[in-house]
Amino acid sequence: MKPQSRVFIFGLIVVGAAMLAIGILIGQFGIPDGSCSASSSPSTNTPSENETISVLMIEECQAENIEEHVRQLSSRPHLAGTPAEKENAEMLVSLWTEYGLDSVRLLPYDVLLAYPDPDNPNKVMITDNGVAVFTSALTEAVLRPEDNNTDVVPPFNAYSAQGEPEGPLVYVNYGTADDFDWLAKNRPDININGSIVIVKYGNNFRGQKVLHAQLAGAIGVIMYSDPNDYARDGSEAVYQNDWWLPDTGVQRGTVKVGSPGDPITPGYPAKPYMYRLNASDPSLPTIPVHPISYGDAQQLLSELGGDEVQNAWKGGLNITYRYGPGFTDPNRKVKMSIQTSREIRTIYNVIGVINGAVEPDRYVLLGNHRDAWVYGAVDPSSGTGILMETTRVYSQMLKIGWRPRRSVMFCSWGAEEYGLVGSTEFVEEYQKILGERAVAYINIDSAVVGNFTFGARATPLLQQAVWDAAKKVPDGETQERSAYDVWLERVPDPRTGTPFTAGIGSGSDYAPFMHRIGVPSTDLLYVYDFIRLGLSSYPVYHSVYETFYYVKNFLDRNFWRHLTVARVYLELSRDLADSVILPFGCADYAAKLQQAAQGLERNFGVKLTQNGVVLDDMKSALDNFTESAQNFEMEVSDIDLNDAYAVRRVNDQMMQLERAFIDPAGLPDRQWLRHVIFAPSSVDTYSGAEFPAVVDALYLIDDDPDQETRWNNVRKQLAILTFTIQSAASTLNDVTQL
Amino acid sequence: MKPQSRVFIFGLIVVGAAMLAIGILIGQFGIPDGSCSASSSPSTNTPSENETISVLMIEECQAENIEEHVRQLSSRPHLAGTPAEKENAEMLVSLWTEYGLDSVRLLPYDVLLAYPDPDNPNKVMITDNGVAVFTSALTEAVLRPEDNNTDVVPPFNAYSAQGEPEGPLVYVNYGTADDFDWLAKNRPDININGSIVIVKYGNNFRGQKVLHAQLAGAIGVIMYSDPNDYARDGSEAVYQNDWWLPDTGVQRGTVKVGSPGDPITPGYPAKPYMYRLNASDPSLPTIPVHPISYGDAQQLLSELGGDEVQNAWKGGLNITYRYGPGFTDPNRKVKMSIQTSREIRTIYNVIGVINGAVEPDRYVLLGNHRDAWVYGAVDPSSGTGILMETTRVYSQMLKIGWRPRRSVMFCSWGAEEYGLVGSTEFVEEYQKILGERAVAYINIDSAVVGNFTFGARATPLLQQAVWDAAKKVPDGETQERSAYDVWLERVPDPRTGTPFTAGIGSGSDYAPFMHRIGVPSTDLLYVYDFIRLGLSSYPVYHSVYETFYYVKNFLDRNFWRHLTVARVYLELSRDLADSVILPFGCADYAAKLQQAAQGLERNFGVKLTQNGVVLDDMKSALDNFTESAQNFEMEVSDIDLNDAYAVRRVNDQMMQLERAFIDPAGLPDRQWLRHVIFAPSSVDTYSGAEFPAVVDALYLIDDDPDQETRWNNVRKQLAILTFTIQSAASTLNDVTQL
Description:
- By secondary structure, chain A is an alpha/beta fold.
- Helices cover 39% and strands 16% of the residues of chain A.
- Chain A is built from 22 helices and 21 strands.
- Chain A has a seven-stranded mixed beta sheet, with helices on both faces. A four-stranded antiparallel beta sheet of chain A has the order 3-2-11-5.
- The interface between A and B is large, with 67 and 66 residues.
């Protein structure tokens, strides 16, 4: 069924406007001239013309095209560094060239990846006096014959160390910093040192689980997906009957922490001439790590000895959860055999460009990764399908003679799954150009992970633009209301009366743009009811069961949700690329900062006061920033749109705002993160933190015997934050007033 | 005598054109409108109008005004952090306000400075069985009654540690890295560890002498100005008879190395809210350091024991130079008593702004420091007088209705002498704005240090603009030829057929602009014949004898040399502020890089080849850069000057070029220096080095037993250099092509 046939109120308006607009446009832009040189009458894109193109683009975008792309892309495994993945990159080059983009380039990088040894499979065993009595499954069971493919990579954790550790097993819940800390404080008798730990997936980034285990002295880490988090409705309500994970499913994933990108060329692009560290040099895990199914985990956990765990640590398996250490049978131990090797392979980014008509040196980037752990029908092919359809729609607009004011860059990244590798190498290679010229980066990774509502992560600067785009686009369920209305109804932010819009963490390719070079970023997707469900991901994430069948049956039967995301992608990018004045919310940033300051005071105010630390300077800087932002927005509203230098000036000021929050010195102990206001949480890379250096300085501060050093660090980080906010305010002030 | 009365051929043209121009201008700009909003016809500053203003500005500039300023400024000591210095800052605020600049601001910073204790003077003694038998002079002799003033600070080295070390004396020539290295290798019997070293001023920055001495284990450092370097023509040909240093003169100066600016707020502005390190925390000297006259040095050196020094180490005193250690009389030792204290005081920058008419968000900065060790008639008041007259000339142009296209900022810095403190704090506070908006920084410090020729240090990007300005300005000797012609004749660069133009070191306030944030910088001055004389500075540098009398009698009787420098300052700044297309030499940068690469190959090619290191990748990047620069300059020559977006685009690209050489990670072990192409030499802050990280990696490489680590570092630094050049090339490429 075509979505248009069910377009009612919202749809009628869209169609009517579109028909009218096509006529106008054919008249106006009828003869494409192919020119992209700056126009001598630069402000031709008036609001009314923008509106026409906006309607046309939304209308042109088709659900069945996306569906067909997702079907094709997920028809075989396409892991980073494999021939299938390269073929997909080349397919995009052909397609975008055929679409008539102004340029299309394939950008290779030689980077350190990791693969299991096909001749020596990874496994976890229970040994009895040294003899294996149980071995974890080497592959996930094939539950639908169509899912069978010899190119499926067995479950593994990328960048695990090699080795065959054997020892007592200890259960540490989710393996968070707090979990390890709780155990150390409350059960000092349970020795992690020299043990293998088993932890549940979820609640934080898996790399951090490994880091904390390593710091505690563990000799190996086993991860599994507990039914409480991944199979809540019983053993039957799982793939292929339902969206939950079956007991044979395993989540793959990287366990690299630290600087994203190629581990052996940190900070610089992995070009042939670049100097490379040894594969064992960088800060990759030093102990073996392996993921298993909850079916296999049950074997291990049911034999664990020691006391029963506290209630908060219990999972959903039908066993008694115990801490260990070790099994009830003292002859039994757990043993891991991990032979995953680190190899340099070539990965590919594909960059397609539409040259801007007026300001070709201003870039709006639309990005999505292409590599998948297995079939990746959700992650990332749902997004790749949308990127492909988005590109087609843009090319259609070019054909009727329209051209955006600014350049639009379509970016298909390689090797995101290993740690944002393709996008990071790109940002490293072009950091100077992008730092000066990139207007915004719009990411789509797993575009549809649920059927509840459209949603977004965004810098405060782009929130309003995302909301405005969502207001123009029909929602993915009935197409009767706007995506914005459904979002607002289902996930309201009670503090602001707007749809809840999360901050920018580090879970996908927006991270190098936002956290390294301060390019305003956002990430679009259709989500499940994450507030009610509280899941860390959709259940089959990174397993072999993430198939087209799964998407079609459990997430988006008619692909309308994909369509909604695609249309917001189109409209948001058009707005950013074509509006004379950039649609940035500077006062929104001020409001967000005030909110963050209130949060800091609420969480730490008493403790700060007790230690003689006052927030007055920071609040004063914040008030300056708020005033600067409000004055600036008034100035912008009065600007003469025909005065090119004035237009460029205020747009440059807005672009400089996000950059002003970048400290070249980086965050303490995390120099690759340079955004002083937002950063991935230091204890969970996936989630975002506000004022990260200050919050990190306060983390577990009471436990530290060296109170003076710790509190001096709090003062220092607060002073840097104060300076940074003041510095950001100055970017918005009258440009002749320092 | 007024200079105009001797203006011949060159002057006649200037005057004639000026008279004509005044008429045109009064007609055209007659009614000042006070407006600085962007014009709707932005390209009003046509070449012919530029030419008229250019002639007018040069003509308006008056030698006697500069002379009067220098006389006033040098009439009393004006050391950083003293009331006299603050009064000078306030005088500038009044003057510039009176001149009608659009805004004038006094910017205070609270920074760590250092002062001798008036009640406990610093001294160097010879002790005999613990009893002082000789004590160095506590002050410099007053040789002219006019030079007497109770505010003269006694000779000292700022940031010396306090203490009273006593021990054997060792003579280490100039105290360079090579000198200490030579002694360690050739005279291992002479133990620096536990000794006090005496070194000559000159050949490198005094802070490096202290650093090397400290690393060698010395417990104190004494510095003096040897007659070979500071009094070559005998004991009579000295102040007040000649320009050489008398035997009572002492060079003051800072011995801080490392990051410039306030030592206890590195990287951030010294605002009241900023977090401060302890005064003993930062990397300031840990041993006492003190400067003495060559009169006093003779007392110490004549009693030294040990072998006679090698010929290259001999100085100009009428004694036998010996290494030591210790005196010939074994009962005698050298003892220092240093009570200099580190104190936080307030310093002031004064910033005056003329708002740009078309691009107010582009800044041309003219800077000069204001603080002096004593009277500072040369350093910096010669420059301050010029800055003041420059400001007056600009204000006259405003009065006849002219206004530059871009904003012009006049910057008077505080506390340069302590380590570029005022300028560094300013750059740290406004790094985001300046990083994006500063077109160029033009420095004048000691504006007239000799009477030989006008000269300049400059980034390659600004060389041509400096030369072009010097072509329009009469020289300072006869006013019959251009400053350029005299410069070319007297200091030709045989490699290029142009006037020799040095690179940008770290000796003055251009350093934070150039090396921290990549603002194209230049430094203007009138010099002595440095090639023939080979001096490290003019002889009375930083002594009490640096007086107006000295300037008037030995450097520039009619102040025409000051006038020449002022006129180049005016013309160069006008060109940068008013030309539609920035007068930057991108291909000149390429040529300079090619030259630097040839130098690297000449100096290290054989050694590199022997160790399997090839320069092919770097050369290939260089060729790309050269091609990009040439293509870019062709593109620029074709540009439509009425197309504002195109004009801004190419200007932005040129501004981005110098920034592209900035690596946010900084140079190895010198993170505050971030320019990958040029840096102060790591063994001498005053002089510049090309490809500094590579050259440093190769320094004394043969002596290191760990050859593998050292050569890997060479490979790494070469790869970073290659990447940086490639990245710079990309800023000049077609903006739609990555």
